[in-house]
Amino acid sequence: MTASLLLTEQTLAAQRPVLFRYALLQLRDSALADDAVQETLLAAWQSAAGFEGKAGLRTWLIGILKHKIADHWRRSAREAVAPDVDRADDGEAEEDDYFISSGHWNGGPKAWADPEAALKQQEFWAIYEVCQNNLPPKMANVFMLRELVGLDADEVCREAELSEANYWVIMHRARLRLRECLEIRWFNNTLQDKRHA
Question: Among 7, 49, 84, 169, whose CB has the most other CB atoms within 10 angstroms?
Answer without folding.
Answer: 7
